[in-house]
Amino acid sequence: MDTNSGLPMAQLTNRESEVLRLVARGRSAKEVALELAIAPCTVERHIENVRLKTRTRNRAHMVAYVIQEGLLSAV
Questions:
Q1: Whole-angstrom Cα distance, residue 72 to residue 60?
Q2: In-domain check, residue 75
Q3: Is residue 74 part of a domain?
Q4: For residue 20, is it within any domain?
């Protein structure tokens, strides 16, 4: 990992990993919420938690980072 490296995927909760995979597939927070039967604000909170754990600037950077680092196996 580089100097900007965040935590490994093992440090993400199962739900955070699940939300991350759906976001990486291009789903919006509303779409993720519908698919997982949770509130959109909960999805946003999970995304923010992952972003903070990976020390990335925004959603696009977060997805690019986990793919680049090989932390997201099957998108």
A1: 14
A2: no
A3: no
A4: yes
